[in-house]
Amino acid sequence: MHAPMSDVVVIGGGVAGCASALALARRGLSVRVLERNPGEGASWAAAGIIGPQLEAAGDGPLARLCLASRALYPELAASLVEATGIDVGFRQSGALRVAFTASGRDEIAREVAWQREAGLAVELCDGDAARARAPALCDEVAGGAWFEDEARIDPPSLMRALRIAAERAGVQFRTGAAVRRVLVEREQACGAQLEDGTKVEARWTVLAAGSWSSLLEASGLAPAAVRPARGQIVELTPASPVLSQVVYGPGCYLSPRDDGRVLVGATMEFAGYVTAVTSRAVRDLLTAALRLAPALGDAPIGRTWAGLRPHTNDDLPILGGGEIARLVFATGHFRNGVLLAPV
Ligand SMILES: Cc1cc2nc3c(=O)[nH]c(=O)nc-3n(C[C@H](O)[C@H](O)[C@H](O)COP(=O)(O)OP(=O)(O)OC[C@H]3O[C@@H](n4cnc5c(N)ncnc54)[C@H](O)[C@@H]3O)c2cc1C
């Protein structure tokens, strides 16, 4: 069985696939997205931190790409509101990274020195200055750094808006479509074949299947080029808002929502394709969160969940063309796929 030829077929409807599809459709191309099971991917599980400065281990191409992407976020968020009416929760709320000891604080200062030299907004702070920004932080906090330009977003809203905007731009979504392999003829990619044998042909093929990307036949990737790195999150629902900005602390981060919820994340585990939430992870995350912000101790637990980050050996995303002509990769975004949506 054949579906009619489109310009592009995108394999995977997570943030990488949806954002690519939307951008291509807005440039006038006909696009089809093949998605096995919406909601299965990391994109729906993410904490929504738009934090290139929090995440950067140092200056380099990935840090620069992430910074460029953050700069494009206001435009993406505004265009999604315009196209769909959905507020994706993009807030330029700033972020804190804190330590409990003077040596930890000095370590943070050393790690962000390049950012100050590069002219990025970073303010070193002592414990009192950190608590002035986020009064919920405990007395143990010895200081750290404040990043004025960091932001946050609500990933489920982002995913809803991306899909609707893409559909309105003409993208066709086919859900329940499990792709078995990339179609390659005469050394050129020409679409995808589903598990049921259906061929979906296209002039170009985009591989955006997240942690599952290198499981596809003829993917052009080494077998373990992309591996799942599980991240578990505990959602707390305080009666009144405790925090407005993102906080990275020892053992956890806190990512607040406008309605007062706080996401406590996240573990980093290589546990295969398993999205179970474990008691050890919940204990460790809550222990770290309550030490950092004791007021969260009264907050009811909302939900817990886990997702699979697409990890690569060098921690870098796999973007652009490879050895197979007309096959374009948009995968391996690891910890930064939501941040990288605009690029
Ligand atoms: C707990 C957690 C917290 C995170 N927090 C942040 C954060 O704060 N900021 C940030 O920037 N990033 C964060 N990330 C990382 C981010 O979520 C990922 O980098 C990003 O979602 C990857 O997007 P993706 O579209 O490549 O993959 P996914 O979202 O995993 O999407 C891949 C899609 O492909 C589909 N698929 C797979 N195989 C097939 C197939 N054979 N046929 C058809 N469809 C298929 C899947 O069903 C899935 O929907 C977090 C991740 C986790 C797990």
TrEMBL record:
GO BP annotation list: thiamine biosynthetic process; thiamine diphosphate biosynthetic process
SUPFAM superfamilies cross-referenced by the UniProt entry: FAD/NAD(P)-binding domain
One MF term in the entry's GO annotations: flavin adenine dinucleotide binding
Protein's pathway: Cofactor biosynthesis; thiamine diphosphate biosynthesis
FAD dependent oxidoreductase domain sequence ranges: 7-343
Keyword Transferase (UniProt): no
InterPro entries tied to this protein: FAD-dep_OxRdtase (IPR006076), FAD/NAD-bd_sf (IPR036188), Gly_oxidase_ThiO (IPR012727)
Any Pfam family the entry gives: DAO
Keyword annotations: Oxidoreductase, Thiamine biosynthesis
Entry GO CC: cytoplasm
NCBIfam families: thiamin_ThiO
Protein name: Glycine oxidase
Organism taxonomic ancestry: Bacteria, Pseudomonadati, Myxococcota, Polyangia, Polyangiales
